[in-house]
């Protein structure tokens, strides 16, 4: 398995493997450690390896000595460099090179790029400071801290909206090396006093693009730091023992690790999306999102890595502090280059809140024509025939098996999503994922009886799993059934059953062998909610609405023909249902959010100036998070199209969706102030209350973190009480 999180395609995986291999051979981490004493922060061996292997010229045009690749490839290299703490000015130099390559006139590109590509010139990019270009074509100003400036022969400096390209040895240039917290690379202040710059070295309007380049590539490096620190923490948690157990069995440790994984995944998705962009203007918003995550995550993961190592993590000899130093320093420079959170909000305000465009392979076209035809036909029909047409054509649930769906693979699903955008297709919520389970695990007779009426909107199903004594521990059900002639007699109680009062059928977990181990004695049964002995009592949720119910079974007869799956093997079917539920919720179905990003921005903009100034950064965090949820799904799809294994995004999206909804409505409540608690914002207030359910229903966030830690990170399971 590749060590790179950013790489999905075969080419990127090969590139990443080559870079990791070369950095290991160059003993990058040891070189980084040596910088704590008297080792160079610009080791010649590492720099010449980067040049010889073509990394310095990777994203420079071929006619100027590079390989003509893009930010995506450079991001893969930078991730590996962050992961392996690679010392030296690679990041600032390639940032400077990309800005010149993308924004400078041909004559300047021809003059400067060959040196940057072959590594004989080191560049640095200054995106913070107060530089200005005077009418006499001179640049004046200062930047307090520029990465790699003491090593650079060429300074690329953002001055207002423009960028100036300056020789470090020119008259009026002073670079002062600073004592950096991160010893693995140089940092210097840059002062320019009336430095003359010829017109072809002023890149008009390029400052925003320069910031975008820095954000994308610095975020990619932060991705590497975030995964390296997570991996170190998890490896240690698997072997360190305390209290007679490995510390990875403790839930506090698991949850730290799960939080680190979620942050790393989010930052990876955002950096991957930003680096896919072909044009730097289009990547501006994606880069702001990536930078806002990267600033936070690299620090969070580096700090938690130290925490999970205990005392040894605090030692000078351990590498953990090298990562923290690197992360903290890069985060400070990224923040000083313009607050990306403010840009995230601005991107929403100005309608630029979109990821980089997603290019589908040519095979997609065969599906597009069919989907377009279907949409055209649908639009020509009266509205009351729409649902039947969607069912008959398989477009209601394209990913379901035939004959109900189209057995659509990822590519066809993506095309359908695009072509059907704006067409109303019913979200069946719980009824949908319960029926999908029947379609997957039921008999032919059951499929025939139950699936189609659901699709046509004639019948609803509920999920009868939770009981007073079986919530998170869903296999601990006590509702039991006795075998009788031709079927079973069911007695017991379910609780929190959503919409049971509106449903004709329910899928229930029932104990059929009280002597078998917990997971082994459960059978799945379809229960007719109108059968004698079934009582449904509505329960009011905290919103005031009776959304869920308690359901009692008193000697209810269930015919053998309504048992779904094998007797005593119902846990397998239950797990499939819970899996379908998670994917549906993580993909946005059954959510309680009821309050969208645009609503938040409107609320922010209608607040008084002072309030806006106070809350705008938090709004940026929430908006970046919500945006990234979509990117996680996009990465899952891209991975599937590239034929790779599914990644951990599914679990991560369930957790994030739930918590992001709560953070969004919490912030909105704060912004709305007393209006939100005095009946003046009914939609928001309901959404705020309703969203409390999201971290409970469909598996609580604590259980999801346990699952992430155990199933994805491989930490040991909780030892069970005997
Ligand atoms: C709005 C809503 C709709 C619902 N709809 C349905 C439905 O249609 N059908 C259905 O079957 N169920 C439904 N549920 C029930 C839901 O699945 C359960 O509430 C959920 O699984 C938690 O179970 P519990 O309520 O018994 O809480 P408990 O399991 O008792 O948990 C209480 C607290 O302890 C924590 N906890 C428990 N075990 C662990 C552990 N091992 N590690 C760490 N923390 C732990 C939990 O995270 C939680 O914070 C719904 C719930 C809600 C709120």
TrEMBL record:
The protein's name: Acyl-CoA dehydrogenase
Sequence similarity: Belongs to the acyl-CoA dehydrogenase family.
Keyword Cytoplasm included in the entry's annotation: no
Named cofactor requirement(s): FAD
Domain Acyl-CoA dehydrogenase/oxidase N-terminal: 9-119, 369-458
GO MF assignments: flavin adenine dinucleotide binding; oxidoreductase activity, acting on the CH-CH group of donors
Domain of life of the native organism: Bacteria
Coiled coil: none
Keyword Transmembrane: no
Keywords: FAD, Flavoprotein, Oxidoreductase
Record-level GO cellular component terms: plasma membrane
Pfam families: Acyl-CoA_dh_1 (PF00441), Acyl-CoA_dh_M (PF02770), Acyl-CoA_dh_N (PF02771)
SUPFAM superfamilies named among the record's database cross-references: Acyl-CoA dehydrogenase C-terminal domain-like, Acyl-CoA dehydrogenase NM domain-like
Acyl-CoA dehydrogenase/oxidase C-terminal domain sequence ranges: 210-331, 568-713
Stretches assigned to the Acyl-CoA oxidase/dehydrogenase middle domain: 462-556
């Amino acid at each position: 398995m590749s060590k790179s999180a950013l790489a999905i395609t075969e080419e990127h995986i090969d590139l990443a493997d080559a870079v990791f291999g070369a950095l290991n051979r160059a003993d990058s981490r040891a070189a980084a450690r040596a910088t704590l004493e008297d080792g160079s922060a610009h080791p010649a061996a590492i720099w010449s390896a980067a040049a010889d292997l073509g990394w310095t010229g990777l994203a420079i045009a071929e006619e100027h000595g590079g390989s003509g690749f893009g930010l995506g490839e450079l991001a893969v290299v930078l991730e590996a460099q962050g992961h392996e703490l690679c010392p030296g000015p690679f990041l600032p130099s390639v940032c400077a090179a990309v800005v010149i390559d993308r924004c400078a006139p041909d004559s300047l590109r021809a003059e400067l790029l060959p040196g940057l590509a072959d590594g004989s010139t080191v560049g640095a990019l200054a995106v913070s400071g107060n530089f200005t270009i005077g009418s006499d074509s001179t640049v004046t100003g200062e930047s307090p801290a520029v990465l790699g400036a003491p090593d650079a022969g060429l300074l690329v400096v953002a001055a207002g909206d423009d960028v100036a390209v300056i020789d470090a040895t020119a008259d009026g240039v002073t670079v002062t090396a600073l004592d950096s917290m991160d010893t693995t690379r140089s940092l210097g202040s840059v002062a320019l006093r009336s430095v003359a710059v010829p017109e072809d070295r002023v890149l008009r309007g390029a400052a925003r693009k320069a910031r975008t380049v820095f954000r994308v590539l610095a975020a990619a490096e932060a991705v590497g730091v975030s995964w390296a620190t997570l991996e170190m923490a998890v490896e240690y948690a698997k072997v360190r023992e305390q209290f007679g157990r490995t510390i990875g069995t403790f839930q506090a440790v698991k949850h730290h690790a799960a939080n680190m994984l979620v942050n790393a995944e989010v930052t990876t998705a955002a950096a991957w999306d930003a680096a896919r962009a072909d044009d730097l203007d289009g990547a501006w918003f994606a880069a702001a999102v990536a930078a806002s995550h990267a600033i936070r995550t690299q620090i969070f993961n580096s700090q938690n890595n130290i925490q999970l190592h205990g005392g040894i993590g605090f030692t000078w000899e351990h590498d953990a502090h090298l990562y923290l130093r690197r992360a903290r320093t890069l985060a400070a420079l990224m923040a000083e280059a313009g607050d990306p959170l403010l840009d995230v909000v601005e991107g929403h305000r100005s309608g630029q809140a979109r990821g980089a465009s997603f290019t589908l392979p040519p095979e997609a076209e065969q599906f597009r024509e069919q989907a377009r035809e279907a949409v055209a036909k649908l639009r020509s029909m009266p509205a009351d025939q729409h649902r039947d047409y969607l069912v008959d054509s398989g477009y209601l649930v394209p990913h379901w098996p035939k004959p109900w769906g189209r057995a659509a693979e990822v590519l066809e699903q993506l095309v359908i999503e695009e072509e059907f955008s704006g067409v109303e297709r019913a979200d069946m919520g719980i009824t949908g994922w319960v029926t999908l389970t029947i379609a997957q695990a039921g008999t032919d007779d059951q499929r025939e009886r139950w699936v189609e009426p659901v699709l046509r909107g004639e019948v609803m199903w509920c999920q009868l799993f939770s009981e007073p004594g079986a919530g998170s521990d869903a296999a601990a059900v006590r509702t039991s059934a006795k075998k009788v002639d031709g079927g079973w007699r069911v007695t017991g109680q379910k609780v929190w059953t959503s919409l049971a009062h509106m449903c004709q059928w329910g899928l229930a977990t029932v104990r059929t062998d009280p002597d078998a181990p917990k997971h082994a004695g459960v059978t799945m049964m379809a229960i007719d909610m109108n059968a004698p002995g079934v009582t449904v009592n509505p329960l009011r949720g905290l919103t005031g609405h009776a959304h869920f119910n308690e359901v009692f079974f008193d000697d209810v007869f269930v015919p053998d023909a309504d048992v779904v799956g094998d007797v005593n093997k119902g846990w397998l079917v239950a797990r499939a249902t819970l899996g379908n539920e998670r994917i549906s919720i993580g993909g946005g179905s059954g959510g309680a959010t009821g309050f969208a990003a645009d609503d938040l921005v409107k609320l922010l903009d209608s607040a008084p100036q002072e309030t806006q100034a106070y809350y705008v950064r938090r709004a940026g965090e929430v908006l970046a998070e919500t945006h990234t949820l979509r990117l996680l799904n996009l990465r899952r799809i891209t991975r599937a199209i590239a034929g790779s294994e599914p990644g951990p995004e599914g679990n991560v999206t369930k957790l994030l969706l739930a918590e992001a909804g709560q953070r969004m409505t919490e912030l909105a409540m704060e912004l709305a102030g007393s209006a939100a608690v005095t009946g003046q914002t009914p939609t928001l207030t309901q959404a705020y209350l309703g969203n409390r359910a999201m971290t409970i229903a469909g598996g609580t966030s604590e259980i999801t973190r346990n699952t992430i830690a155990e199933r994805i990170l491989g930490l040991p399971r909780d030892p069970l009480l005997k």
